[in-house]
Amino acid sequence: MRDINLKATEYFEAVARLGTVTKAAEELQVSASAVSQQLKVLETQLGARLFRREKRRLILTLDGDRLFQTTSQSFGALRNACSAIGRQRDLRSVTIRVSPSFGVRWLGPRIAGFAAAHPEWNIRIDAAPDFTAFETEVIDFDLRYGAGGWSGLAVEQFMNDSVLPMCSPEYLEKLRAVSDDPAEQLAAARLIDSVKMLYRWDIWLASNNIKLPDLVYPFRFDRSSMAIEMAKQGGGLALDSVSLCLPELERGELVPFCTDFAVVNFPAYWFVCPPRHFNRRIVSRFFDWLKAACTDHEDRVRTLLQEKGCHFRQVAAGDLLGEAPEHSD
Length: 329
Description:
Blueprint: H1 6-18, H2 21-28, H3 32-46, E1 51-54, E2 57-60, H4 62-90, E3 93-98, H5 100-117, E4 122-127, E5 141-145, E6 154-167, H6 169-178, H7 182-188, E7 191-194, H8 201-207, E8 219-221, H9 224-232, E9 237-241, H10 246-251, E10 255-256, E11 263-273, H11 281-307, E12 312-314
Parallel strand pairs: 3-4, 3-5, 7-8, 7-9, 11-12
Antiparallel strand pairs: 1-2, 5-11, 6-9, 6-10, 6-11
Helix pairs in contact: 1-2, 1-3, 1-4, 2-3
């Protein structure tokens, strides 16, 4: 059988539900003759009568009743879904996708303040490593980690990343007991690898002209949060994001490995969505809040590291990878 005529099916469902062609035409905002014509099209296509007339009333035939049971459920579910979407929009809701480590370590401690300032808004956080497919998923925007440059989308940088080797104070003492030479300390260190970081050990070692006999990672994690926790517990030396462990550095639970090496600073965090989503007031307002929070955060990062004797080296994200990764940390 050929595909069912959806317009004819819609008109049939309205007539069967409301009982008359006139009422169906009023609901559909078309003429009664247009409804009658679509009923004839459907009956012809199915090769069956769907209604019979009794005293100016339309009564469903057996075939018509069978079709109505299915169409009423289908169109009812569709109307309910559309209504739910409309109500959700009216409630000023926003759905955000964020990488797991950034969501837990950076956004999580701050989002309560934003929510308290906007109690009328419903906020949903979807922490997932994969970027949103906006054409099929109901997400307002992504907070992405990567090199930027996603075509067809509005892409706004909201924060730089600052990366340096760090470890617990106790582990640093063990490395200094091996040698006064940072290169020899690195050769003796257990390197913790964050596999989804843009700036990884091989890049860092090459940029600092350090060659290790064997570049071995005793620990490899696909989440920065796990790599940072391992370093904090004295498990090794992590090359990771200061943005994700600033409280540990402020409390002295983590310390820079060696201030002779520059802190690498580069654009890494991006606000990403279809351009039309910026027309929603809630989206633009969240972006403004996010930018202000990130400015304050980056000032804290720079102040703390400079107090510890660190200096910074700015690089472009595009210099780290040829293209943006297909995942986020």
